[in-house]
Amino acid sequence: MHHGIGFIQDLAVVMALAGVVTVLFHRLKQPVVLGYIAAGVIIGPYTPPFQLIHDEQTIQTLGELGVVFLMFSLGLEFSLRKLFKVGATAVVAALSEIVLMLWIGYEIGSAFGWSKMDSLFLGAILAISSTTIIVKALSELGLKRESFAQLVFGILIVEDILAIAMLVLLSGIAQTGELSAGIAFVTLGKLLLFMTVSLVIGILVVPRALNYVAKSQSDEMLLVSVLGFCFAFCLLVVKLDYSIALGAFLIGAIMAESRHLHRIEHLIAPLRDAFSAIFFVTIGLMLNPTVLVDYAWPIAVITIAVILGKIVSCGLGTFLAGKDGRTAMRVGMTVSQIGEFSFIIASLGLTLKVTSAFLYPIAVAVSALTTLFTPYLIRAADPLTRRVGHAMPRTVANVFGMYGQWLGSLRPASGEPTIFSLTRRIILQIAVNLAIVAAIFLGASYGAPYVTLYGSGFIEKWLPSEPMQRVVLWSGALIVSMPFLVAVYRKTKSLALLLAEISVQPAKAGRFTSAIRYAISDLVPVVSMLGVFLLVAALSSTILPPTGLLVAVLLCAALLLTVLWRWCVRIHATMQIALRETFEEQPDP
Amino acid sequence: MHHGIGFIQDLAVVMALAGVVTVLFHRLKQPVVLGYIAAGVIIGPYTPPFQLIHDEQTIQTLGELGVVFLMFSLGLEFSLRKLFKVGATAVVAALSEIVLMLWIGYEIGSAFGWSKMDSLFLGAILAISSTTIIVKALSELGLKRESFAQLVFGILIVEDILAIAMLVLLSGIAQTGELSAGIAFVTLGKLLLFMTVSLVIGILVVPRALNYVAKSQSDEMLLVSVLGFCFAFCLLVVKLDYSIALGAFLIGAIMAESRHLHRIEHLIAPLRDAFSAIFFVTIGLMLNPTVLVDYAWPIAVITIAVILGKIVSCGLGTFLAGKDGRTAMRVGMTVSQIGEFSFIIASLGLTLKVTSAFLYPIAVAVSALTTLFTPYLIRAADPLTRRVGHAMPRTVANVFGMYGQWLGSLRPASGEPTIFSLTRRIILQIAVNLAIVAAIFLGASYGAPYVTLYGSGFIEKWLPSEPMQRVVLWSGALIVSMPFLVAVYRKTKSLALLLAEISVQPAKAGRFTSAIRYAISDLVPVVSMLGVFLLVAALSSTILPPTGLLVAVLLCAALLLTVLWRWCVRIHATMQIALRETFEEQPDP
């Protein structure tokens, strides 16, 4: 009971001060996040009168829990369903924002003569807007239900995914020192693979498990199970060298498909609020106010660049994707700030020891300033649109109007099926199944050293020869992935059939039409499966058996497959239906 | 992001295992708490295959947060109002349970040849029943609304207070090695003083502040403010050398008087559930299963002693306080286990290094066993009562019946005012005001060294002479306590008047009746104030000015008082009304 006084004192100082500033900033009608950061600065080691925190390490650890809960909550609000709805517009706007801001950030850094790595991280820091700030600002202004707000949330979802990709890429660049296209491709491919597979398996398993737990009506059980899944998944992700933020976000997105989403959100909210307060305080703790004075000039430049850059890039992206000027202006002015992701990226740079110390306080200062302006900018969007509309020369306005009409004419009448929409579904299914197959073989290769390491005595006794160990591992992976391989084969066949129907027209092929069509639909899947085999062999090269044994294994597998074909089809269909059910289920109110 | 992997791994292991056992134990219809402890044993260092926790210290710290939230929640459920309702019966039952179990525990310890301190701590460990287990068991059996359950909750509240007194006393005994009546008296007096003053000031300040915060409708703000108050108060309590459990419980009890009680309970519940799970896991972590085998014999004896002892002591207490035999049996069988408080007391013994290492695992084992039996015992209460009723000889039954009738005849007809009920209120008010005055002077004495220490340069410049420093401090305390001193004077006067009316009857005093009455009502307050002065002087002896200066200060104060008398009366009345308002306000549904 008595040994934790220092810790309790730290927590008391943090929470009491946080409590005071939250009330104060609410009265001043400023975002509470700013208050937390200010509280951190007051508590921190750089400001007099004395050091108020004894054990900064423990508070930092609690702040890290804040990141987990914050990202988990973002994941819960993320929804694949919502993403499909806003779709293309959000992707275009988010991409144009991120690319432009990355470039602006990098150029500003270079202009100030900072190192390449500092400039790159500055670009990444400026690229992503703050979901927390935007959601708070919009709900405080009562605009959360407006259609432009829905679009903004879509953009934020796309940004979240791209931000995670950026986190991974930045870690890679920081470790290798440069970004080769090959490495970027492999890194992003692995990330995509990991995300796809965890989403598919997660959505199959987790919501079902939570439904079972939730039956008891006990909030405690549900909460502890949710936290159990959350931290276990985070651990897996961290073990795979991804950031804990990614893990928390993904498991949140998985749980977003649960029927009990609203109960989970309710239970997690207090944990998120308490620990994210600590997280934002720890940001202030790291902030040295003298750095802000020393770097007042870059801070001012970057703040203006963020506000103008985001309005232009995101607004333009929205407009180019076919929204009207008013919506575009509103969207641009809403996203014109940086926030929690910027801190995460900045602290990534610090922990990897590739960025200079001044970058972090600059990020915090810019975030604070842009956050301050956010509510005023959102409110100023409509008047500004009107003024711009009045001031704009008639010819320019006409060009903009014609662009909108031209875009509208491009769109197919709704309901009319295109080749694209027909094939898209099949291609998506093939991709997902391929991803699972790839993940199974990658997992087997990744796990191989552990198996031989931990079970060494046991395995060496029964399987002394190294090639035989490989045979067992590789055939195991093959058997597990069989239902998915069968599915890939069958989907490829139907895709080939479909394409053959379209491309081989009777007018040209004459009486050979159906023969050619069948030839294509038989040949394409076989060739594809050969490609799949080469891919799998490349991915699992570390556990691939020697050629002779490999052929034996493949022959056995082929034999097994003739027996198990129907079972494979059935098990895959069951999984697919289960996935679709979970996916289409609406959460309980 | 990357430095906390060990910590995340620990948390993942703890929460994932907790999640699994919570579901498992729910299926087995056993209390989840047992599952958490079992999970702790599995994770812990004493069981193979390998150590699953890297940084036990951090998990222990989080478990300590669990104690804070657990005690805070208990405090929230504690209510002075509820306590007054069940009143006497609960006090009698709880006292008889605690005294008997303390004695039984001490005797068992002595019989096994354990040291005095071990035996004493064993007694304390067995004395208090587990609120968590009882609330869960009763709500799972659907008996929460029955009248005996209300009585049980009353007993638990009284036990909580007595447990806290016991914690304080045990710390004292552990440090001095023995319990002298004088030290016990002073310790309990100080505790009572501290609790009274914090409750009064807390109930005046905290619910009002929370009402202000709650106006914003923001759950985040309310939660952070609640946590701010909670940890700040815990810090104060820890600084005064009380346990953090006491602090969390008291601030919870203070917030229980807030109008927003239910919102606060709702917000705290997830924090409590998450961290109390960790707390119970840490209990398992400390449990060495081999100790259980070595001490199987004491564990069995103590388990039987707890169950039989509590049924007899608490049941008998309930019966003696005037309830029927069936209720008494139900109450006795409901409270027949030990729980969280026992762990807190056991770990107190360990951290103070006065108990042997085996006491803690024994406490955990006995708690686990008695917790297991609780639901069955509650269900067995009614059948057992019937069987006992049948088996009881007629004469014994008659004696019990007559006892009930005799008790009933003792009670005054309701509504009839007695001297006791008339004076009780005034005496209570005098006591509370005296407590506040005492706390102000004690606080000034306690704070004096800090003032001279921190402000040393400043104070020495303006007040070089030590006696003048005392004068300033002491007169400051006097001025602050003036409204309460005036209140004490006025209440004493009306008490004296009341007593004079009753004791000086015209039949005896004849024509001097009113003169004597007035003399008493004038004299008693003056004599009392002299007593108050002596008390205050004794409490503030370290800052009491030398006699000459003291007389001067008192004269000045008297002069000031003539001017401020009306103001003092008014400010005190305002505070009293504010207190009563908060107290009588019902929480929002």
What does this entry look like structurally?
Two copies of one chain form a homodimer. With 589 residues, the first copy, chain A, is an all-alpha fold. Chain A folds into two domains: 335 residues, Na+/H+ antiporter like fold, CATH 1.20.1530; 166 residues, no CATH class. In chain A, 83% of the residues lie in helices and 0% in strands. Chain A contains 23 helices and no strands. In chain A, helix 7 crosses helix 8, helix 8 crosses helix 18 and helix 14 runs antiparallel to helix 16. Chain A starts with a helix and ends in a 5-residue tail after the last helix. The mean pLDDT of chain A is 83. Chains A, B: Belongs to the monovalent cation:proton antiporter 2 (CPA2) transporter (TC 2.A.37) family. Chains A, B: It is a multi-pass membrane protein. Chains A, B: This is Cation:proton antiporter.
